[in-house]
Amino acid sequence: FSVGSHKNRPEQKTSCRNLFISGDWVKNLDHGSKGLSQERAYISGLVAANMICDVLGQGEPAKIIDTEEDEAHIALGKWIAKQSKETGLADVLPSNPVE
What we know:
Layout: H1 38-56, H2 72-87, H3 89-92
């Protein structure tokens, strides 16, 4: 997926009453990482299965455990990345600082 393509991702609910989409690429999944990951794909499958249980009125919904807040070093890294984008610093830094 390219930068900015998030707005074009499908939602899990569709116009068909009993058709739901899952995968790490669906949007409006409020759980954990917003990027693409195996965990996000797994959780979206559980959410889709729970939606099916709701539509059919049967079955036992899967329990989805909330994610923990970011640890301090992760939160700091995200903050630095956000600040560098907002200030334009990201535009002048090399894309690969090792080279």
